[in-house]
Predict the structure.
Amino acid sequence: MKLERLAIATLFLGITFCAHALTTREKTFTCPIGGESFTALDVMSGTVTGSYLDLQKYGPVASPWPLQKCPSNGFVMFSSEIDGKALKTLETYIGTDAYKSKAKSESNYYLAYMLMRELGYPIRQLAYIVT
């Protein structure tokens, strides 16, 4: 009986510790502007054990969550729920010299901020783009 309890406890603890992990995989993405397909590392899951004062998470987690960038036009895929009208606006915007120059040197999060600002997102959402 004691051996069975020990085996069950060991199994339970093993499952608990295995569940706390960051998992990633290569994934194929299709750029919503231009239709380009590309592969990039994507985060599938992670475990948040706490948060810093700047709202970044810690633990076995990607924080901030990675944002994919289309290689040919520099469009950052910050949301999967962008409607057709907004995509047209952003297609024009990513063609500007101002965006193109930033796309070469700035982080994906700053580029996402620029795109969201162009669409008129509220300041509150802009402030938390990297959290």
Notes: The longest strand covers residues 37-45.
